[in-house]
Every structure is written in C-alpha cells, then in structure tokens.
Amino acid sequence: MICPHPVIEMHESNWQRGVYALTDATLLPDDDTLLTAAEGALRGGLALLQYRDKSSDEAHRYRQAAALAGLCREFATPLIINDDVALAARLGVGVHLGQQDAAVAGARERLGPGVLVGATCHGSLELAARARRAGASYLAFGRFFASRTKPGAPPAELSLLGEAARFGLPRVAIGGIDGDRAARAVAAGADLVAVVHAVFGAGAAASEAAVRELRQRAGFTS
C-alpha cells in the first residue's frame, strides 16, 4: 500500500532512550488542548509520542493523528499510533500493538522495515521473545507501579527489565511512572519510560516542563 504521507525512517539514536509520552483523550479532550500539550512535550525533548484514542470516530482520529504527525516531523520525533495499523500506514508512522505476535508480524509486513512497531509484553519474557521474532522494534513491559490509566493491568517486577536485555531491543517501562519511579526503572534497565499523567496530567501548558523534569530525574539529559 502506498501511504499518502512519506514514511520517515528514524536513526536509532533519535528514539531509543528517553521519555515516551502517551496521549489521553480524557486529559486532552479537544484538538487545541491535544496539540498544545503535544507541542510542549516535544519541545521538552520527547523520544517518542504515542497517539492513543479508542473512539470509533475514524475521521476524528485521523484528523488528530495527522496533526500530530506534522508536529512530530517538525521535531524529528517518531509518532506511534496505538493499535491501529491502518491509520499508521495511512500516515506513514509507527504503531504500538498488544501481545499477539501475529499482529506484530502483520504490522511489520504492512508498514515495512523502516517504521517502528512496538509490542506490549506485560511481565512476560516469552511474549517479548515472540514479539522480537515477529519484528518488533521495542518491547514494553509493565505495569511496574499503580497506574491511573490502566489500574487493572497485570503487575510486573522491575528485575524483568534487566532480564529483557537478552533481546537486544529497547525496553520500555510503563505503569505509574513519575520522576522518582522513572529513575528506578532506568536503574533497573529501562531505555525508555512511558508516561501519561506525568506529562499531560497538569494541563497542556505544563507539558514541556514536565518532560524536561522527567528527563533530568531519569538521567536522560546527556
């Protein structure tokens, strides 16, 4: 499939370490708030930005995702679409998927080798191994702490991050991450820390400062 937007292939050093922010439709309820918050977070030095909106309004999701894709191109930061390979293909951006390795393999085949495909692995090294074989670009583990976004997600131990080094892919820590917890996750082996409320929970105008603080406290400033 030919994408209407050019695919941007990212060099590894541009995204493999740092703060990974996930948007939230409740915290960022309209286009202006979403784009203001996202631009601030990008200015703060995000490694990755994920657009997460579970609504069934495809036109709404395309409009917002296309606007975010434009912003991310300005900052040379990859945009990841949550759980929608078709939208990712349409925009020429990456995708994050759940734990089905067939979905990861299908996304890799459809999007091509130069696009990021992330995989949720919860607390399972077996899921991580399968995702790696299927073509994942990074492996997301957690939740490591109590999460307001997904309070029912299965818990995981921080030691898992060190064990997952065997796969040779960037390891993402997710679940209740704030400044202190980000530092703990990085010390345990995380390459990226995925956050929602820690960046977008204090309002759109605060996102830039929130990212800068997270980067500093997690040791991502070098």
Automatic annotation (TrEMBL):
Which sites bind Mg(2+)?
D83, D101
The pathway is:
Cofactor biosynthesis; thiamine diphosphate biosynthesis; thiamine phosphate from 4-amino-2-methyl-5-diphosphomethylpyrimidine and 4-methyl-5-(2-phosphoethyl)-thiazole: step 1/1
Its required cofactor(s), as named, are: Mg(2+)
A single Gene Ontology CC term: cytoplasm
Q: Where does 4-amino-2-methyl-5-(diphosphooxymethyl)pyrimidine bind?
A: Q50, Y51, R52, D53, K54, N82, T120, K150
Family to which this protein belongs? Belongs to the thiamine-phosphate synthase family.
Protein name (Swiss-Prot/TrEMBL):
Thiamine-phosphate synthase
